[in-house]
Every structure is written in structure tokens, then in C-alpha cells.
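Dear support,

I submitted the protein below through the web form. The confirmation email said the job was done, but the results page showed an empty box. After a refresh the structure appeared. I'm attaching both so you can tell me whether what I see now is the final result or a partial one.
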Amino acid sequence: MKKRKKSILWLIAALSFLLCLVPVRQIYKDGGTVEYRALLYQVTKWHTMVGGPGNVETFREGLEIHVLGFCIYDGRHLVEARYCD
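What the results page shows now:
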């Protein structure tokens, strides 16, 4: 009986850990930014329009990863696109 209880507890612990890894996808209406958020991590794929003067459009692109609330990778950068008038 004790062995059965122990195995059930291990199974519940493993399933709850796996549920902490299941992400929820959120799409922002800022140009295409997508965020995957779970209890243990957050991954953001940036593509947002920052703006610019005249015929210059500036976008923020890249990838940002947080694990347990700490930023472990921040690969965001600005990209300028110039248009002729």
C-alpha cells in the first residue's frame, strides 16, 4: 500500500511539473509580436513598430527569453526601413 501511495505522489508531482511547462500563446496587435508564457518561463518574439521621422520606419525585432523571472537572453535590436517619397 505504501509503495502505491508513493508512486501516485510521484505521478502527481511529474504531471504538475509538466503543466508548468505548457505555454499560452498571446499575439499583440503592434505589428506581429508573439509571446509564449508559462509558469516557469516566457519567450517573446518581437516585431513591433517604434516609429520614426519622415519616411523612416523603425521596427524592434528579436527574441527575449525569461526563465523564473530572470532574463537569460535578450536579442532585441532596432531595424530601420527607409522609403522614397
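Response: this is the final, complete result; the empty box was a page-load delay. The chain is about 20% helix and 45% strand.
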